[in-house]
Amino acid sequence: MMNRSPVFNFASILLASALAFAGCGGGQSETAADITLVETGHEGHNHGPGGHGQTASLPVAETDLSDWCAGHDRPESHCRLCNPDVRFPQENVLRTRSLELAESGIEVSLNSRSNASVCATDGAVIQLATVRTAERAGITVQAVSAAASEASIDAPAEIVFDETEATVVTSTVAALVSRWLISPGDAVAEGEVLAILKSPDMAQLKASLVSAHARFEVERKELERYRQMKERNLISEADLDRQSAVTEQARAEFVGARGLLLSAGLIDSDIDEVINHGSLSNQFVLRAPAAGMVVKRTAQLGELIDAGKAFATIADPTAMWIEARLTERQMRDVDVGHQLTFSSDGRGINRVGGEVIWVSRFLDLHSRTGTVRARVIDPGHGLHAGEFGRVSIVQAGSHDVSLVPKDAVQWEGCCNVVFVKEAVDRYRPRKVRLLDGRGPYYQVADGLLPGEEVVVDGAFLLKTELKKSSIGAGCCGLDPVG
Whose CA is closest to 170, among 296, 283, 311? Predict the structure, then answer.
């Protein structure tokens, strides 16, 4: 006995579809858009709407004779052979929701599902009644193309300032802010006054500076007098050496006192002002140690900040890092130098490129994730520190894969299938194993060859015929990726 492949025909699907539309979800069910179905046994039948002149095959109590296509044995309002422009409300619902999903950046993903080893799809063939049936059904095909395989890593990420271009403004003395002269977001130049501070230690430091300066000046002048006396042989060489040592000690004390004030936040002109005028107040100014943008004011007015604690942070607004959190498995596939893209919006429209500069060699004990840091390579990025989003790291593979439009792939209950065109009126479902897909295409690891033609528009219709038991069971059973 010769085994035959099961052949599916469009003989009775329309009536079943109409009943399913009426009973799915209380009038809110969805179906494929622009479905045109063909029956068998009516080839060459041609008439206008309501032009049969035959009696309906259903009892009068069960059907409206004024709305019955007796030639095709279905309601006239549902007969697309007679009325190609018929549209069902469920089709508009599906089309509207598809647009809403697209605008929300939600994609339909099938690549996470694995195929069953044995199912009804094996060896199945879908045969249309006539060649014209495919045209009326709106079936379109597209050739499968070949490309190098790509693997993408998707992970959450955050934008932070480049720490190598950021400066923390501190002081080596405890102080409080009596007045801020800048606000976050202000651009400042190096040496510009940021705030007026008061410190209980500042008066003592200034007094030490004035005292050390006075002593150094006295010893310096004494050394000059000793040198003159030595030229006239009035003192010995040992006397001159002793005075030189005392003068050098005084100079060291003065330099040390000056250095303490410099580290506290004063600049040379501020220190010269203290020396020249003898001002010993506890008030001084806090200046910017580098040019940039003030991104944070840490100290509050009137709050005494301990020595070494930050008053403010200055950073370069054009220098940003992208810090992504990857899983343990993902970390193994990323190295320094890899390129990535960052997107902060759900639709992935606004993308910024980056280059990986550091990969963490340790994982967080609680989340079991590691940090990958990338440098933003787009100078006009317009990103903001603290901005959250997602990164995509694409890696080219070493083998070729087939690319198939995502609309061509259907999940028929146990397998991912595409419908390969064997003839204009004949299509064969083919199981495919999917890989990650970027844009409108899936990567197919096996099951398709480049050049084969697969159904794009009308694939859902063929899936419905392949698995009639799914009619009325709801939408396609696709899981949106959120």
Answer: 311
3-state DSSP call for residue 284?
strand
- Contact between 207 and 214 under an 8 Å Cβ cutoff? The reply is no
d(C-alpha 271, C-alpha 253), whole Å:
15
Name the helix (H) or strand (E) containing 177.
strand 175-180
What is the rounded average pLDDT for all residues in the chain? 76
Alpha carbon of 394 to those of 20, 154, 253, 356: distances in Å? 43, 9, 61, 12
| Tens-digit pLDDT profile for residues 94-111 | 555 555 544 544 444 555
Residue type, 22: A
Beta carbons of 287 and 182 less than 8 angstroms apart: no
Sign of CA dihedral 291, 296, 299, 302: positive
If 0-12 CB within 10 Å is exposed, 13-18 middle and 19+ buried, where does residue 286 land?
buried
Find tokens 């060489």 and name the residue: 237
The per-residue pLDDT for range 278-324, each reduced to its tens digit, is 778 899 999 998 899 998 899 998 889 999 899 999 998 888 899 99
* Exposed/middle/buried for residue 53 (C-beta within 10 Å: 0-12, 13-18, 19+): exposed
Could you tell me if 370 and 328 are in contact, meaning their C-beta atoms sit under 8 angstroms apart? Answer: yes
Tell me what pLDDT residue 436 has: 63
Q: How far is the C-alpha of 65 from the C-alpha of 74, rounded, in Å?
A: 10
| Residue 33 confidence (pLDDT) | 33
Q: Each residue of 191-207: pLDDT tens digit?
A: 899 999 999 899 999 99
Q: Which residue reads 């008061």 in tokens?
A: 198
Is pLDDT above 90 for 216? yes
Contact residues for 23 (Cβ-Cβ < 8 A; gap 6+): 29, 472
Cα(221)–Cα(250) distance, rounded to whole angstroms? 12
Q: Which residue has the higher pLDDT, 262 or 83?
A: 262
- Contacts of 59 by beta carbon, 8 Å cutoff, 6+ apart: none
Question: Which two structure tokens, joined as six digits, stand for 166?
Answer: 């950021």
C-beta separation of 413 from 470 below 8 A = yes
Cα torsion 24, 30, 36, 37: sign: negative
115/432 Cα distance (integer angstroms):
8
- Check: pTM over 0.85? Answer yes or no: no
**Position 85 confidence tier, pLDDT thresholds 50, 70, 90:** low
Distances in Å between the alpha carbon of 428 and those of 31, 126, 137, 140?
A: 22, 6, 17, 14
